[in-house]
Amino acid sequence: MGEQRQHYNEEFKKQTVKYIQEQTKTMSDVAQELNIPKSTLHQWLAKYRQFDQETVHQPEKIRDLEQTLKATEAEQRRKDREIEDLKEELAILEKALHIFS
Fold first, then answer.
1. CB within 8 A of 34, min separation 6: which ones?
2. Is the model's pTM score more than 0.90?
3. What letter does residue 56 receive in the DSSP assignment?
4. Structural domain that includes position 22
5. Cβ atoms within 10 Å of 27's Cβ, excluding its own
6. DSSP letters of 26-80?
7. What residues contact residue 8 under an 8 Å CB cut-off, 6+ apart?
8. In a domain, 3, yes or no
């Protein structure tokens, strides 16, 4: 006849969402592992998700962090070149000062 519905308490739902956020597994893998329908997990995630528990393993976060890192490295290289140029200018000025003194 009808299939018996499983009921879960709030704490279990929150812990499951936390588990999902900490894993690098897909939602399908977690659903299969816990034997809970994927649609149910999506509903719990929408309700109980806390973004401070998100891992860095998500592709969007990785891309954002990589872009930030590249921009920071490019800025650092620019500043290093500028410092080297200024050191060279200072050395030239010091030599000119000694010549004209």
1. 16, 41
2. no
3. T
4. 8-55
5. 14
6. -HHHHHHHHT--HHHHHHHHHHH--GGG--TTSHHHHHHHHHHHHHHHHHHHHHH
7. 16
8. no
Strands (DSSP E) contained in 25-89 are none
Q: Measure the N-to-C terminal CA separation of the chain; round to a whole number of Å.
A: 105
Structure letter (DSSP) for residue 6: P
Residues 10-38 have pLDDT tens digits of: 888 888 888 887 777 788 888 898 888 88
- Secondary structure of the chain: what % helix, strand, coil (to 5)? 75, 0, 25
- Whether 1 is in a domain gets the answer no
Spatial contact of 84 and 90, defined as CB atoms under 8 Å apart: no
- Write down which residue in 38, 55, 72 finishes a domain: 55
Last residue of a domain, one of 55, 75, 90: 55
Residue 86 lies in a domain: yes
